[in-house]
């Protein structure tokens, strides 16, 4: 398996005991789908054995096959997406919990998050390729008026006038709000299409080293050295965000984590700024979390043409109720939180886990370790 990011790996120490340590993998994929990642992990670490349990997930509800209590107490490492045992006392020997998700906000109130010091790591880095493709796809679907053309096809109508209002992407500006692994891959694809990219992060990135991506990187993707943005904005105050939003942004990609400070980060004032700064209109793509946008304010902005449109893979709440007015808002495309899906997802996430097991054994810096105080 190929791993990038975070510097050279130290040689592994031999296992202290002949008894193999347990990796408890509680994941929303059947074992056969996880098998390549499991086999690669057991091949790389001959002191480990992986026990897989299927966590069924549908429309926001999780059910897990019964896991024997003795396995919980034996687990040295846990790989999970949604599931956690009820209490830290259930997993006394666990040294690391590797989430296969980009964020951990869904467990922020769980006792393991609030009352333990077990390192929690996210799978940031595995989502970049597929989510960047979703963002660009949605932007092109909108800018090329494809939904109207598809309606014509279903009606068996040939009307070229419907397809004449195309706005190509060359020279347009992408603003990436939260320049993490996903935003970096969006930047890579956008630059290849002839677009300008500007970035926004909470912390300043004024030195070459600070601009580097120190997390997991799918080989051949992203912006490892942070060189793609033509300008970099930062800060945690509204004034800092507003300065970024004034930069005549054509496509605004939301990639920040959901925290108390980012809840309703974009609302009426922000939509007004986007409208004032760009006469062409800003298109918004949200692939982060629904509550980052004030949803009623977004609907108003769509209805009053303050923004050009929105592509939403996340909503508030999820699932989005059938009677929610967002469904009927103009120029909106909604998908049911699936932009991160990929046939390579599980294998890549197992690679992140492998990297962190190496580093945990050698006392190195973990990849994507969650700062509980910051929330990500």
From TrEMBL:
Is Cell inner membrane included in the keywords of this UniProt record? Answer: no
Q: Which keywords does the record carry? A: NAD, Oxidoreductase
Q: Which Gene3D superfamilies match?
A: NAD(P)-binding Rossmann-like Domain (3.40.50.720)
**Which InterPro entries would you find in this protein's record?**
D-isomer_DH_CS1, D-isomer_DH_NAD-bd, NAD(P)-bd_dom_sf
Q: Identify the residues that the record assigns to the D-isomer specific 2-hydroxyacid dehydrogenase NAD-binding domain, covering every copy.
A: 139-210, 235-339
What is one Pfam family matched by this protein? 2-Hacid_dh_C
Q: Which superkingdom is the protein from?
A: Eukaryota
Enumerate the GO terms in the molecular function aspect: NAD binding; oxidoreductase activity
Q: Which PROSITE patterns match?
A: D_2_HYDROXYACID_DH_1 (PS00065)
The record's section on CDD domains has: 2-Hacid_dh_5
The protein's name is D-isomer specific 2-hydroxyacid dehydrogenase NAD-binding domain-containing protein
Species of the source: Epicoccum nigrum
């Amino acid at each position: 398996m190929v791993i990038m990011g975070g510097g050279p790996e130290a040689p592994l120490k031999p296992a202290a005991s002949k008894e193999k340590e347990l990796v408890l993998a509680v994941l929303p994929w059947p074992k056969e789908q996880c098998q390549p990642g499991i086999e690669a992990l057991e091949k790389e670490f001959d002191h480990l054995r992986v026990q897989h349990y299927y966590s069924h997930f549908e429309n926001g509800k999780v059910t897990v096959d019964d896991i024997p209590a003795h396995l919980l107490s034996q687990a040295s490492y846990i790989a999970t997406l949604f599931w956690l045992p009820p209490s830290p006392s259930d997993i006394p020997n666990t040294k690391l919990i590797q989430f296969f998700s980009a964020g951990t906000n869904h467990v922020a109130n769980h006792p393991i998050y609030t009352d333990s010091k077990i390192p929690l790591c996210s799978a940031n880095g595995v989502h970049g390729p597929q989510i960047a493709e979703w963002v660009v796809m949605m932007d092109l679907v909108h800018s090329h008026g494809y939904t109207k053309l598809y309606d014509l096809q279903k009606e068996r109508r040939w009307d070229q006038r419907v397809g004449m209002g195309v706005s190509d992407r060359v020279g347009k500006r992408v603003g990436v709000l939260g320049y993490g692994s996903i935003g970096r891959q969006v930047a890579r694809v956008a630059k290849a299409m002839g677009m300008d990219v500007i970035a926004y992060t909470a912390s300043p990135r004024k030195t070459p080293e600070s601009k580097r991506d120190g997390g997991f990187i799918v080989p051949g993707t992203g912006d490892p050295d942070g060189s793609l943005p033509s300008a970099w904005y930062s800060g945690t105050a509204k004034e800092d965000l507003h300065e970024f939003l004034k930069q005549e942004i054509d496509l605004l990609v939301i990639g920040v984590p959901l925290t108390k400070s980012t809840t309703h980060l974009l609302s009426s004032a922000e939509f007004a700024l986007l409208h004032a700064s760009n006469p062409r209109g800003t298109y918004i793509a949200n692939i982060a979390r629904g509550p980052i946008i004030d949803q009623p304010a977004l609907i108003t902005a769509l209805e009053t043409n303050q923004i050009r449109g929105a592509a939403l893979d996340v909503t508030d709440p999820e699932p989005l109720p059938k009677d929610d007015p967002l469904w009927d808002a103009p120029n909106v495309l909604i998908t049911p939180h699936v932009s991160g899906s990929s046939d390579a997802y599980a294998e890549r996430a197992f690679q992140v886990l492998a990297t962190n097991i190496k580093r945990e054994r050698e006392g190195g810096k973990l990849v994507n370790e969650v700062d509980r105080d910051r929330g990500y």
